[in-house]
Design goal:
Length: about 250
């Protein structure tokens, strides 16, 4: 599939490098360029693109604000943030971006982003086979893994542990430290079944297999790991577990 993309960066050398790397990939048919968000909107007014590769920190309308505008398009392009910073990870997650690439950009890392964009475009094509008809529209959060930023599906997170102003996301295979507070995740993930059980812990309610009283208080078991439940959260947790169990019985 040949892709038409838009590269947006307010720093000319960075824009030149990004456009060069995009042009060098065989999946890209044409690269439009914009030096700020306003110019990007002018391009998008007249041209349909498959993806926007977008810097976050720009004067005037920044990348996050532009991404929110793009999400309201009738047929929004895929959004890939290309940034030197990781403090936009949570907002990127909320916007459902396709990828989050850290500067300096490497050709192979950009190639992975283009593969994801091509996959999304193919899935949106009516002629696509039923087996690959639609990619799941699942929220994901950017995490660092071996020096590469990857998108971790929220459904793979089992429980979350506070570590100062950061949070550690625990999956079945590994854990990932992200720059976001536990309080922020508790608020944003409440509708996805995550429950605060302690000032330092947030768990996926459906994965709780046991609530048990010990000599030091209540604990829950998630994936064989025991996590403490604070006194202030015990009653709410019990009520949530009972309601969830009743829902399962009566389905």
């Amino acid at each position: 599939m040949s892709l038409v993309v838009l590269a947006v960066d307010d720093e000319p050398p960075a824009l030149d490098e990004l456009a060069y790397l995009l042009n060098a990939d065989g999946r890209v048919a044409h690269v439009h360029r914009a030096g700020d968000a306003t110019e990007a909107l002018r391009v998008l007014r007249d041209t349909e693109v498959d993806a926007v590769f977008l810097d976050i920190r720009m004067p005037g309308l920044d990348g996050m604000e532009l991404a929110r505008i793009l999400r309201r398009f009738a047929h929004p392009p895929a959004i890939v943030f290309v940034t030197a910073y990781d403090d936009g990870a949570v907002d990127a997650f909320d916007l459902g971006v396709t990828d989050y690439v850290r500067k300096p950009v490497r050709a192979e890392r950009l190639g992975e982003s283009l593969r994801r964009v091509a996959g999304l475009r193919a899935a949106a094509t009516p002629a696509t086979s039923a087996a690959a008809a639609t990619l799941p529209d699942e929220p994901a959060i950017p995490v660092e893994l071996a020096g590469t930023t990857r998108m971790l599906p929220r459904s793979s997170v089992r429980w979350v542990e506070a570590q100062g102003d950061y949070a550690r996301l625990h999956t079945a295979e590994a854990s990932h430290l992200v720059r976001v507070s536990l309080a922020t995740l508790a608020e944003r993930w409440a509708n996805a079944g995550f429950v605060r059980i302690h000032r330092s812990f947030l768990v996926q309610l459906r994965l709780v297999t046991e609530l048990r009283l010990t000599g030091s208080g209540y604990v829950v078991a998630v994936d064989g790991v025991e996590l403490p439940v604070s006194r202030r959260h015990t009653r709410e947790l019990k009520d949530r577990l009972i309601r969830a169990a009743k829902h399962d019985w009566t389905r």
